[in-house]
Amino acid sequence: MFVVQKENAMRCSHIAVMQTADAALAGVKTCAAIVLWTRAAAGRDWTQGPPLSFSLAGCDSMAALRERLRQLAGRLPQGAALVATGISGLAYNELSRLGFCLCELTAFTPAVLEPLAAEIEAKAQEDAPVPTGPVATATPGVYRINLMEVMAAHPEISSKKALRPFLASTPFVELDLICGHMPPWLEEHMRQHRLTCARSHLPDGSLRARITHTLCNEIPQNF
What we know:
By secondary structure, the protein is an alpha+beta fold. Helix content is about 30%, strand content about 25%.
């Protein structure tokens, strides 16, 4: 059983585990060393690094504690997950501010690394903001937007607010649009600006419209 704080959740390739002097999982106040586990770029194999000495002993002021934690951040990869039995108070606030994804476990074994990483990445996906307009894909000139997701996450955003600024200012080769139905104003816009549209229905009943220019090499700078 583990608890992942939503702050700083992201792609997880580094997990730093706090340990006591006898190598048991530690809390931030009882930590004597930190062991960094690193996942290969492809695959699920994790490599254990050597223990890094770390303790908050002797930090008798808030300034000293902050400085010790900043030193720790300089020794670990940016965005690493930090695992402990408990992290609270000023240490929690400072470590979160420094970019760590904080995780609480009751015990640790290497077997927990992969499910913990999956939980962190799922949390990052949940917390990812829904954009309010089309976003670029990996293919140059191709943009994508799911109007249903946009309008569910941002009720104040209409189809016109989501699309008109893009259509007015962004040169594109293709706009991949998912919606419940084609907005009538967009039908008229496509007619006026010589845009073509290939339509298909997805298994959930939503409409996918792939909007392109009538002449594939004719991409106006402004509409």
